């Protein structure tokens, strides 16, 4: 569902035009089409690229003899089937066949005649499926190719806190956090609700533009330490295939630096401000500056010995919904806090924080998920006792995970340790 945006519409159109041209010229006896010429270089390369990506993934898993190679003076990995080699695919109940060929042709240039190799793929199918190939199969190939490219893209974790002398610059490392919605132990209903909301958000560009709203969504994750706020952020980024910008407010000197940082984020990103109550004085947004240091204006929270940011709450509010946040494509802004009650209402209102997600102590569903993920345990006699004790024990998923980690190879020991801890806590 995020795929269409990866392929420019013109390319899809060109692809369709290209194939319809070929298909229209079909003879009933001739059931092949070739991906060659007919298009200008740009479109031809794009179309070719989609087919290559698609065929590479198919053939790599289908046959070892089909391999990728990199011809010199090309940056691209080019797919190679052996000449005249082919493979079949069944799609929607009919068969198509892809094959790869090289044709030698003579080219004349200023009186010289050279022979050139021209490579092409042939897609063959029975002519009665012409329409289906055109309207279903080829769009499917483009879509699959986009999915493959999308999944192979490396994503990044950006931070503004890597000791850069330029306070408005982001540094990045590859984002490799393994958390996904499958590994996340939270109530299933909540998990599905979040996934649904994310999917809705991802596909609603037209809606946001139509009602004059910037295409962003704000989440507030709140709950005690160790309940999975950071893990949920990673799972969200992995789910959407977005980059993450981890914004450390205490490293930002003023509101204009904050604005610059926001402007240099890319679209399709999650911007995260963790423990917002600890890095920003959010108690009073009317109080813009306080006078200390011999009358010099000092922003809220910058007093000596205070680890608060110099950025004001209004700076953050502008950051969240100011005019300049309308730059570019979709952004998800996530704030986390252990104490929702410490936050100013201005920050919490819908439009700024559209969704408030409470991550709390572990319940029996989340407990079973962790037992399954860590110990591969489907069920256990002791689960009934655990279920009874959990509501009063107030144990976090992080604590349970830690106990499981201690006895990964001994399920009984792991369960006995965890029950002991839960008992202790419920007393
Ligand atoms: N809901 C969860 N599902 C799976 N693992 C979890 C969950 N919550 C916590 N964990 C485990 O505990 C560790 C700490 O969790 P995490 O950092 O996500 O919690 P947090 O709520 O962000 O904590 P803090 O408020 O201290 O930042 C994670 O690395 C993960 O292994």
From TrEMBL:
Reaction(s) catalysed (UniProt annotation): ATP + H2O = ADP + phosphate + H(+)
GO molecular function terms noted in the UniProt entry: ATP binding; ATP hydrolysis activity
One Pfam family recorded for the sequence: AAA_lid_At3g28540
InterPro entries according to UniProt: AAA+_ATPase (IPR003593), AAA_N_dom (IPR025753), At3g28540-like_C (IPR058017), ATPase_AAA_core (IPR003959), ATPase_AAA_CS (IPR003960), Mitochondrial_chaperone_BCS1 (IPR050747), P-loop_NTPase (IPR027417)
Domain called AAA+ ATPase: residue spans: 215-363
Cofactor needs: Mg(2+)
A GO BP annotation: response to stress
Family annotation (PROSITE patterns): AAA
This protein's UniProt keywords: ATP-binding, Magnesium, Nucleotide-binding
Family: Belongs to the AAA ATPase family. BCS1 subfamily.
The protein, known as: AAA+ ATPase domain-containing protein
Organism: Coptis chinensis
Lineage: Eukaryota, Viridiplantae, Streptophyta, Embryophyta, Tracheophyta
């Amino acid at each position: 569902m995020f795929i269409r945006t990866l392929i420019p519409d013109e390319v899809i159109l060109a692809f369709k035009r290209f194939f319809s041209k070929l298909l229209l010229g079909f003879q009933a006896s001739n059931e092949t089409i070739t991906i060659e010429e007919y298009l200008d270089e740009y479109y031809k390369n794009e179309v070719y690229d989609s087919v290559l990506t698609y065929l590479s993934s198919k053939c790599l898993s289908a046959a070892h003899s089909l391999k990728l190679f990199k011809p010199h003076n090309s940056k691209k990995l080019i797919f190679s089937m052996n000449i005249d080699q082919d493979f079949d695919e069944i799609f929607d109940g009919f068969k198509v066949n892809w094959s790869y060929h090289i044709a030698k042709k003579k080219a004349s240039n200023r009186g010289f005649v050279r022979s050139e190799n021209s490579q092409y793929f042939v897609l063959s199918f029975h002519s009665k499926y012409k329409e289906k190939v055109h309207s279903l199969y080829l769009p499917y190939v483009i879509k699959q190719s986009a999915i493959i490219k999308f999944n192979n893209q490396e994503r990044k974790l950006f931070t503004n806190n890597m000791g850069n002398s330029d306070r408005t610059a982001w540094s990045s490392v590859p984002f490799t956090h393994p958390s996904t919605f499958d590994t996340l132990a939270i109530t299933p209903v909540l998990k599905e609700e979040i996934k649904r909301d994310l999917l809705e958000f991802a596909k609603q560009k037209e809606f946001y533009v139509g009602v004059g709203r910037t295409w962003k969504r704000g989440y507030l994750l709140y709950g005690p330490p160790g309940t999975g706020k950071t893990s949920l952020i990673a799972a969200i980024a992995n789910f959407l295939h977005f980059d993450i910008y981890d914004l450390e407010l205490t490293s930002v000197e003023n509101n204009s630096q904050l604005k610059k940082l926001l402007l240099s984020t890319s679209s399709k990103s999650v911007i995260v401000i963790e423990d917002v109550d600890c890095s920003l004085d959010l108690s009073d947004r009317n109080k813009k500056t306080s006078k200390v240091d011999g009358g010099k204006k000092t922003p809220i929270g910058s007093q000596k010995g205070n680890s608060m940011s110099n950025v004001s709450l209004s700076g953050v509010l502008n950051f969240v919904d100011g005019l300049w946040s309308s730059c570019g494509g979709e952004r998800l802004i996530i704030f986390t806090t252990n104490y929702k009650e410490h936050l100013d209402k201005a920050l919490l209102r819908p439009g700024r924080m559209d969704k408030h997600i409470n991550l709390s102590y572990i319940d029996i569903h989340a407990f079973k998920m962790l037992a399954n993920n860590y110990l591969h345990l489907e069920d256990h006699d002791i689960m009934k006792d655990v279920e009874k004790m959990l509501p009063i024990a107030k144990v976090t998923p992080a604590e349970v995970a830690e106990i499981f980690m201690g006895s990964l190879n001994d399920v009984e020991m792991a369960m006995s340790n965890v029950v002991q801890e839960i008992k202790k806590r419920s007393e």
